Amino acid sequence: MEYDRRFLLLCAGEVLVVAVGNIAAALVLQVIVLAAFLEDRRGYPVFAAAAAVFAALIAASGTVYLPLIALAAALGCGYLALALRDYRLVRRAGGGA
What is the CA radius of gyration of the chain? Predict the structure, then answer.
């Protein structure tokens, strides 16, 4: 089985992210590692901004629990928005939902 070289390099970058030890620095390093390997960067600025805000929240709060709850709530809202969009596309196309 042949492996994609980019995948192996991305895995090596993830080892660096985990080895940092500081979660805020790890989130910033995560953004840098992903930028090096993405070909299509259309949604990347949104991800980079969200990761920076999340890293700042973790650094400011001193605990991980409250920012993780906020992240879970944001992800839940995003999932609901995508589900609603999919539902509306199916209804508009004339299919039953």
Answer: 18
Number of domains in the chain: 2
Find out whether 51 and 27 touch, Cβ atoms under 8 Å: yes
Same domain, 70 and 91: yes
Render pLDDT for 37-91 as a digit per residue (tens, 0 to 9): 777 778 788 888 888 887 788 778 877 788 778 878 888 888 999 999 999 988 8
User: What per-residue confidence (pLDDT) applies to 6?
Assistant: 73
Residue 16 and residue 6 in one domain? yes
Residue span of the structural domain in which 86 resides: 63-97
